[in-house]
Design a protein that fits this description.
heterodimer; A: alpha/beta; Rossmann fold; 2 domains; 15 helices; 13 strands; about 40% helix; globular; B: alpha+beta; five-stranded mixed sheet; about 15% helix
């Protein structure tokens, strides 16, 4: 048995049963999972976690499922890499990369949320899963649905990168390209979700789904030797991940697993879609939606569902928000690849270049322990860099030809 | 000006389960004033205690978020469709 009491409205605290619900009927606020923390406290300890297999389910007591996970058993516990060259390049002495670009099975942090959501769909007896996606979620839902033997319907903007479309179709999913932005896709899916009674992981299963992101934060705290970093930079789309990282740190502290939380949380967006960092810079918590125009498609959400909470998180933690343009995004991707040998997608380029900006602004100091959240794999967004990575040298299969080439260089 | 208003499921009890109702007015604000006359209680659900539209509600005129137009003062014309949509994950009809 798990430790989920039910759902509760994040705003007016009205309580709901643990079903496929996500909006408060009274105030329209988002629902979140209501845990029995007293019960959790009795079973969880550093030792119980350390003795569990190296995957995200080592924190199962803090996840919103009632039984055992039914899919995605090997997800999570991705490397926390202490950087050598990137730190030097940025002038930071204590820089880490949390590398979810190698997450199992579809190479992004979305595997964490989907493993929880599809397990929950199984528990609720639903036979079809779906999602509105900018790509990474599409891959992950399709893969986990295949593993679970469920039907899947994946809705994406029709102009998505071909790599992300192919790597969704391979799992046998039904993929529907919608002529419009992610925000249009999302609205359409909300209507479909009401008519078809499917488990839309980021709509009616959202309260459960979102909590899968907490494991990204738990892992960082555990891998740092049971403490949280001074700074963490997080890519922001709908603002769910950034909010859940903050929640994960606070839960660990409340449960006595770590002593204190003194982490500044920084939001990173692309300038072509920056409703959250714009609000942060303007000192307001009112999000003005935008029409996205950026190569960072995986985080191009102009009307962020949790945007308000994203702003609150940076404010509460003493962090900030910054955004970078498309050229800077590509530079960021190249810098991480050139210095650490990690090939991340555009969202990762956003994180690297935003960090650079924050250092310049004096918001991050060189001796502070800083973590970059790298959430997706570069092989999925090759289009973004195809014109900026240089060309190969072509020669005849003769030693002389190679010698000539070397002389020229 | 007569417009169609699509009612989200949390508000259906107030409209006798009609998913779509008509209302009169020249702006979004006037539309809600008119709705309140026919379906008392609806304003309390859509506006907070300070008289602001609730943070977690988005209003659309023909698929366009009113925050891209003039907010509550956005003008409406005959035959427009107004949608009231919970902000979280886009909608709930």
């Amino acid at each position: 048995m798990g430790f989920v009491k039910g759902l509760i409205c994040k705003e007016c605290r009205k309580i709901y049963p643990k079903e496929a619900l996500h909006v408060c009927e009274f105030c329209f606020g988002p629902l979140e999972v209501d845990y029995d923390y007293e019960g959790i406290r009795k079973v969880i300890s550093r030792k119980s976690i350390e003795n569990s297999p190296p995957n995200m389910w080592r924190y199962k007591a803090l996840l919103p499922i009632d039984g055992e996970p039914t899919v995605g058993i090997h997800c999570g516990f991705t490397p926390l890499v202490k950087t050598k060259n990137l730190g030097k390049a940025l002038g930071l002495e204590n820089l880490y990369v949390k590398n979810d670009s190698v997450n199992h099975p579809t190479f992004s942090f979305k595997d964490r949320v989907v493993a929880v959501a599809v397990t929950k769909a199984n528990e609720l007896g639903m036979d079809t899963v779906g999602c509105a996606s900018t790509g990474n979620l599409a891959n992950s839902v399709a893969a986990h649905a295949a593993e679970a033997g469920l039907e899947s319907y994946i809705f994406i903007p029709s102009d998505l990168e071909p790599g992300k479309v192919m790597s969704t179709l391979i799992y046998g999913a039904r993929v529907i390209g919608v002529n419009g932005s992610y925000d249009d896709v999302n609205r359409l899916c909300s209507e479909i979700a009401m008519n078809f009674k499917w488990a839309f992981v980021n709509i009616n299963i959202r309260p459960y789904y979102g909590d899968g992101s907490k494991t990204f934060g738990y892992e960082i705290a555990e891998q740092l030797g049971w403490k949280t970093p001074d700074n963490i930079i997080v890519p922001v789309a709908g603002s769910s991940l950034i909010t859940k990282i903050w929640k994960s740190f606070k839960e660990f502290k409340d449960l006595g697993l770590i002593d204190k939380v003194k982490t500044k949380i920084f939001a990173a967006q692309a300038t072509g879609c920056a409703p959250v960092t714009t609000a942060i810079k303007n000192g307001t918590d009112v999000i003005k939606p935008v029409k996205p125009n950026t190569i960072a498609k995986s985080i191009a959400i102009g009307n962020p569902a949790d945007g308000y909470y994203g702003v609150k998180t940076t404010e509460e933690s003493g962090g900030w928000g910054e955004d970078v343009n498309d050229d800077e995004i590509v530079e960021g991707m190249k810098l991480l690849a050139n210095t650490e040998g990690i090939f991340t997608e555009t969202a990762g380029g956003v994180v690297v270049s935003v960090t650079k900006k924050l250092i310049k602004q004096g918001r991050i100091n060189k001796d502070e322990l800083t973590v970059l959240s790298i959430t997706g794999n570069g092989l999925k967004t090759r289009e973004a860099i195809e014109n900026s990575v240089g060309k190969i040298s072509i020669i005849e299969p003769k030693l002389g030809a190679f010698n000539n080439l070397m002389e020229k260089n | 000006m007569a417009v169609k208003v699509r009612i989200p499921s949390p508000l259906l009890k107030l409209t006798n389960n009609q998913g779509e109702v008509s209302a009169e007015g020249n702006s979004v604000k006037e539309i809600f004033d008119d709705l309140e006359k026919n379906y008392p209680g609806i304003k309390e659900r859509v506006y907070d205690e300070e008289g602001q539209l609730r943070r977690f509600i988005n209003i659309y005129i023909n698929e366009e978020d009113i925050r891209f137009v003039d907010g509550e003062s956005s003008s409406v014309k005959n035959g427009d469709e107004i949608s009231i949509i919970p902000a979280i994950a886009g909608g709930l009809f």
